[in-house]
């Protein structure tokens, strides 16, 4: 697609001082004549591209047009690359590669090796080992609807498995604790709602558009999202669970009980995912208090025992 090639051409020229038309033609698998036509198109669009004739000539963007590379120091650029790398694990690779190329274009040649080393010291992978195959296609549809202000229609299953058909005006995608959510105005409820993507099926982008309403982007802030449901529970756990528990609370909440066990004060939400989390620890974890959480675990264990007879 021509627009994709033009954008990529700009990024390449921003990253290099000068590139020959032949080299650019090889990179984009087109003829040099096509490259010159692209250069003419970009020039008409107001991008100051110059072409230098001769054996040492080439095509470049005027230096005044480029971002001053001194604006960012090596640590700044390494941090940007780490952050963009984490996004590439959740978005499609071709969406982020252009931004990565732009950021790399800020790297002075003398510092490129050092910055590459720093940015590769930390890798953030937000994907799961085995995920929902519909997630990426659904993300693409939602982003398309967000860009064009199109409504979305889908089937939605609540925590009890009850399915309803929803139509929403989408406003924001959120990645929180490894899960994607879409925030939007639900025409069925006549109010803003938050939907978990893994509970969505039969997602469709509708042709009808909407005029954006005033939107509160803090809908998932703790004060109105989950903080009111958080309680503190006390656990007795095996030492082997220390690393897993430490990911969910601070070290100050973990104390030694005896040679093999630890006492933990853990923030907990009294819902099914919360109980599933505790049960995943098996016999290595005992809930000491509060009593109603302990009884909730016992009831679930008893129901499971009935299944296995």
From TrEMBL:
<keyword id="KW-0804">Transcription</keyword>
<dbReference type="Pfam" id="PF13280">
    <property type="entry name" value="WYL"/>
</dbReference>
<dbReference type="InterPro" id="IPR013196">
    <property type="entry name" value="HTH_11"/>
</dbReference>
<dbReference type="GO" id="GO:0000502">
    <property type="term" value="C:proteasome complex"/>
</dbReference>
<keyword id="KW-0647">Proteasome</keyword>
<dbReference type="InterPro" id="IPR036388">
    <property type="entry name" value="WH-like_DNA-bd_sf"/>
</dbReference>
<dbReference type="InterPro" id="IPR026881">
    <property type="entry name" value="WYL_dom"/>
</dbReference>
<dbReference type="InterPro" id="IPR028349">
    <property type="entry name" value="PafC-like"/>
</dbReference>
<dbReference type="Pfam" id="PF08279">
    <property type="entry name" value="HTH_11"/>
</dbReference>
<dbReference type="InterPro" id="IPR001034">
    <property type="entry name" value="DeoR_HTH"/>
</dbReference>
<dbReference type="GO" id="GO:0003700">
    <property type="term" value="F:DNA-binding transcription factor activity"/>
</dbReference>
<protein>
    <submittedName>
        <fullName>Proteasome accessory factor B</fullName>
    </submittedName>
</protein>
<dbReference type="InterPro" id="IPR036390">
    <property type="entry name" value="WH_DNA-bd_sf"/>
</dbReference>
<feature type="domain" description="HTH deoR-type">
    <location>
        <begin position="2"/>
        <end position="61"/>
    </location>
</feature>
<dbReference type="InterPro" id="IPR051534">
    <property type="entry name" value="CBASS_pafABC_assoc_protein"/>
</dbReference>
<dbReference type="Pfam" id="PF25583">
    <property type="entry name" value="WCX"/>
</dbReference>
<keyword id="KW-0805">Transcription regulation</keyword>
<dbReference type="InterPro" id="IPR057727">
    <property type="entry name" value="WCX_dom"/>
</dbReference>
């Amino acid at each position: 697609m021509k627009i994709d090639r033009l954008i990529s051409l700009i990024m390449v020229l921003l990253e290099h001082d000068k590139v020959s038309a032949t080299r650019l033609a090889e990179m984009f698998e087109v003829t040099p004549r096509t490259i010159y036509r692209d250069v003419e198109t970009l020039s008409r669009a107001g991008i100051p591209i110059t072409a230098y004739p001769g054996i040492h000539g080439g095509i470049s963007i005027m230096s005044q047009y480029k971002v001053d590379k001194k604006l960012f120091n090596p640590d700044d650029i390494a941090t940007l690359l780490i952050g963009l790398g984490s996004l590439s694990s959740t978005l499609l690779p071709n969406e982020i590669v252009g931004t990565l190329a732009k950021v790399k274009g800020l790297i002075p040649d003398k510092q490129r090796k050092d910055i590459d080393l720093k940015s590769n010291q930390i890798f953030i992978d937000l994907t799961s080992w085995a995920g929902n195959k519909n997630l990426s296609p659904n993300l693409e549809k939602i982003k398309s609807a967000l860009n064009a202000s199109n409504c979305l229609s889908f089937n939605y299953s609540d925590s009890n498995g009850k399915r309803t058909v929803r139509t929403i005006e989408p406003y924001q995608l959120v990645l929180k604790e490894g899960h994607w959510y879409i925030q939007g105005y639900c025409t069925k409820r006549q109010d803003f709602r938050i939907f978990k993507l893994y509970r969505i099926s039969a997602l469709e982008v509708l042709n009808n558009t909407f005029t954006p309403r005033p939107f509160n982007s803090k809908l998932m802030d703790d004060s109105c999202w989950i903080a009111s449901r958080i309680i503190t529970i006390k656990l007795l756990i095996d030492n082997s669970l220390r690393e897993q528990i430490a990911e969910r609370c601070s070290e100050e909440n973990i104390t030694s009980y005896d040679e093999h066990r630890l006492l933990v004060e853990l923030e907990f939400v009294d819902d099914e995912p919360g109980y599933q989390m505790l049960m995943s620890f098996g016999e290595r974890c005992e809930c000491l208090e509060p009593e109603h959480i302990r009884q909730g675990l016992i009831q679930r264990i008893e129901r499971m025992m009935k299944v296995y007879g």
